Amino acid sequence: MSPITRAKKGNLMIIAIPTDDKLTVSKVFGRAAWFALFRAADAAPEFIVGNADSEHGAGTSAVAKLVELGVTEVCAPELGPKAYDALAAAAIPATIVKAGTPLAQAAHRQ
């Protein structure tokens, strides 16, 4: 079974990945230009606007937005301590992936 189709509490996984070019994993999490949301195996991602222009609290603001959207997992190259704590508080696991990794590869990792 593909990682994207794993069930969590009876729901389909929604994986969020930060991106600046809609092709690869961004170098940053909170200030990424976009987040790619993968909702199903082999489906094209949906892109939502990130917090690229945020001055303060970009990571926690990004987590709040992802929680509101029902995200069940995050893949990112790194997380600040506040973003990490916010994800942990929301029970959303985070997987570290290398910046520059193609989005589909990051989402379908084995």
Please give a structural write-up.
By secondary structure, this protein is α/β, with parallel strands linked by helices. The chain has one domain (3-103): Nucleotidyltransferase, domain 5 (2-Layer Sandwich), CATH 3.30.420. 23% of the residues lie in helices and 23% in strands. It has 3 helices and 7 strands, in the order βββββαβαβα. The protein has helices at 58-68, 81-89, 103-107, and strands at 7-8, 11-12, 15-19, 34-38, 46-49, 73-76, 94-96. The strands form 2 sheets. Strands 5-4-3-6-7 form a 5-stranded mixed beta sheet. It has a two-stranded antiparallel sheet with strand order 1-2. β6, α2 and β7 form a beta-alpha-beta unit. α1 runs parallel beside α2. The chain is globular and about 35 Å long. 33% of the residues are buried.
H/E series = EEEEEHEHEH
Number of strand segments: 7
Mean pLDDT: 87
CATH fold name: Nucleotidyltransferase, domain 5
Portion in beta strands: 15-25%
**Count of discrete alpha- or pi-helical segments spanning 4 or more residues:** 3
CATH class: Alpha Beta
Helix % is 10-25%
* CATH homologous superfamily caption: Dinitrogenase iron-molybdenum cofactor biosynthesis domain
CATH architectural group: 2-Layer Sandwich
Question: Care to give the gist of this entry?
Answer:
With 110 residues, the protein is of the alpha/beta class.
